[in-house]
Design brief:
Structural class of chain A: alpha/beta
Radius of gyration of chain A: 17 Å
Distance between the termini of chain A: 37 Å
Largest interface: A-B, 47 and 47 residues
Number of strands of chain A: 6
Largest sheet of chain A: 6 strands, parallel
Shape of chain A: globular
Strand order of the largest sheet of chain A: 2-1-3-4-5-6
Oligomer: homotetramer
Helix content of chain A: 40-55%
Chain lengths: 215, 215, 215, 215
């Protein structure tokens, strides 16, 4: 039976992906912070001792609270460097992905259009995107596909916290609504279900036509 | 019943998309050059008289033969301006897409990494990508999703013509093979089948990790 | 003596470049519509008969009036296809640039962040950017540098026409002002004056930190 | 008198920039590792105590040795996180740039086209590019211009170390040569000398037409 590890699988986009994958008979390990805390490298290493192999890996984690640039401390930077970058790096250095498997990264559209509020997220998610792009070429040899999904405004607890008046915000969006987590869940599921392998080394905006950059 | 028009539906990627869509009970009109020739605006207008409405539209057309820049004539430019740009523009100006519908554009990865051999294709496909991006925001209001798929090396007759020694070429690719048209066909199908709507205004590289640009 | 041809050299950015180049003792031919009209290929060819060679070439032309997409006629598209694309192509196919020379393209930041109002400009300037990128590699062999400058909001007659209330608009810009044409003029001049050759094949946003895309 | 701080000013590109700026009567502090070591945050903070203000700041530092991804240790990541990211962040959080000043970042073209060999550099330089882009909008209010220069293959000691056979490598480049550090030095100088302020929030490839990405 195919096995998937979904990091941050207990809520938001991670939870939606877990639920979608379960519908196609995949054995899903939807991790919570008790299983692995990517901001803590010891926790990451302990997780890897017990989970050294998988067919499908979903790299997903919550984002930092918005902090004005001048107030971000060295400790803040280092914490999120672990959570958004070094934790994922440590996983990829140590976990074995089965030949023909999949790795999905859930990043954010702020890597293409960074913003002040989410400056930490913009920086470290962009950094990991570079690593993921480089590795996609190495994984390709083993027929492992690497897909980076860069969500825009999605209807999660986090968005509800970040945006003051969600109803008003939705009116400014091209589709007049937030995206639903299960749209991403079903997207991931359908790629796997249909054995689409040549989609790899790609960053896919998932934002309801909200971004302005041509690509 | 849902209706799809697939331009260039008689061969290559267009044919594969047509076949995939038929498996999910969509009424597919897979056009051939006899039905519509996008390089001929009169042909485009005649087609639109009979086909003024659809639920799903696949904008797809073959590419120009490789011609060295200094040898490209005014007539060459104008022909491919019609085929790769103005024909599609004329269609979008005149066809009605049902609310909740989909438009897929099959472009090419040369819009991001242009090359000498395919300079005409790079130019006009990039031009249409700009139009498609702008329009994605207007279509979003009617819940119509616009997805631009930018294929890399796919196993079509055209690739066989463009590449001298395909077997040798495949060895240079990260996945050691060309992509299969049906991978794109199934990708398109799965987005429609799963009613994924928030994926819009996006250009998706489909190239087996072959491109080098970060996004 | 070094010779420069500045297309659209009688006003706006073209005029500013002409004036800057004259300060460093360059023999500048600042063309007006009487000399060459890039929207008319016959005019372009007549110009080329008399001007078959130059050291420095500035590809610059005004943009189209804003027209809503649904109202753009076939004639509109074809006119601007000539003006923004095919005229420049014809020039590069026929003019000889001296070894060690320069070609500057004045495009627009709408090629990276297209907008509804300037959809024609976004499309054809992007198309020519592709051609220019490909050719930059061929010109490099002869030590000819190709630089694409993509201006944002610059204080020209055109901006005054396009923007209803310029004073209010300026308050929304990061620098609280439009850019000055002579900033672009001096930028071009300084690259030539300092014999900076390795800057080639590049698109340079010139927009006072106004664009949002990371690159 | 105008004051400039050039980090990494004792060799390579930093040295060339220092020398160019001196020719236009700028008081240049070309730092060496003895003055400030950006990989050591204590050293950075000590430097800032003595240097809390400048008119012009050049953020520049050497890159990491190439290490295969699987061999990069946690300590390696953390060291270069400091050197390429957190050191620069700490400087920008604490130094005062005079109104009307300039900040130049010397990054690398690997932020757009990452490669295996330089994976650390690709990641952290991309991360800082995100921060720099966001801050360019804030600095704009004080008429401070932020310019990110992304060099390709430049004739420095580092390139000589990284590339095995430089002569052979040069033949593969469009200009058949490496770029010269003083071309970048003169480029920086000319922007300052000509008071070009509207060039801000931009990443400029400086690679002799070597990159393949359209922008």
């Amino acid at each position: 039976m195919t096995r998937a590890i979904v990091l941050g699988g207990s809520r938001g986009i991670g939870k939606a992906i877990s639920e979608s994958l379960k519908t196609i008979d995949i054995d899903v390990f939807a991790t919570s912070k008790n299983d692995i805390d990517t901001s803590n490298l010891d926790s990451v290493r302990q997780f890897l001792e017990k989970n050294s192999q998988t067919d499908i890996l979903i790299l997903n984690t919550g984002g930092p609270a918005p902090i004005p640039f001048s107030n971000i401390t060295e400790d803040n930077w280092k914490l999120y460097h672990n959570q958004l970058f070094l934790g994922f790096v440590t996983i990829l250095q140590n976990i074995q992905i089965s030949d023909g498997g999949y790795i999905f990264l859930i990043s954010s559209n702020v890597i293409k259009e960074p913003n002040t509020k989410l400056i930490i997220s913009s920086a470290y998610r962009a950094a990991f995107t570079e690593v993921f792009k480089v590795l996609s070429k190495e994984y390709a040899v083993k027929n492992i596909s690497c897909v980076n999904i860069a969500p825009g405004p999605i209807n999660t607890d986090r968005t509800q916290e970040l945006i003051e008046n969600v109803k008003e915000f939705e009116k400014t969006l091209p589709m007049k609504r937030l995206g639903e987590p299960k749209e991403i869940g079903n997207f991931v599921k359908s790629i796997i279900e249909n054995k689409i392998k040549y989609l790899s080394g790609v960053t896919i905006n998932f934002d309801g036509a909200n971004s302005n950059y041509i690509f």
